[in-house]
Write a structure and sequence with these properties.
It is a single chain. The protein is mainly β. It contains one helix and eight strands; from the N terminus they run ββαββββββ. The chain has one domain. The longest helix is centred in the N-terminal third of the chain and has 9 residues. The radius of gyration is 16 Å and the shape is globular.
Length: about 110
């Protein structure tokens, strides 16, 4: 994308939510590249283990204090290409093939 164009190629993203807002989720190739570039950060004395995909941090660990397996998703460091005009990142949470949260089509 050149500064003169200031917009990504139409084929690089999928419209999500309201097309009028101009938001497009990255295409399959871009997603595949980001997924292949994912990084695992092992636990340290300062924090639990996490996976990082395109800036999104997903912590998954045994929480002794809470008495449960805990999953925590941090979206504040997500790549800008994932952020919708309202400042949110589309998110779908699936547990054992059951969607428990989905705002991916939010306008």
């Amino acid at each position: 994308m050149s500064p003169a164009q200031n917009t990504p190629p139409a084929t690089a993203y999928r419209y999500c939510g309201s097309a009028a807002l101009g938001y497009r989720f990255p295409d399959a190739n871009t997603c595949s590249q980001a997924n292949r570039s994912a990084v695992f950060h092992p636990a340290t004395h300062e924090g639990p283990p996490c996976a990082e995909v395109d800036g999104v941090l997903v912590f998954a660990y045994l929480d002794h204090q809470g008495g449960a397996f805990r999953v925590s998703v941090h979206l504040d460091s997500a790549a800008q290409r994932l952020v919708r005009p309202d400042g949110t990142v589309p998110l779908r949470v699936v547990v054992e093939d059951t969607v428990v949260f989905d705002d991916s089509e939010k306008a």
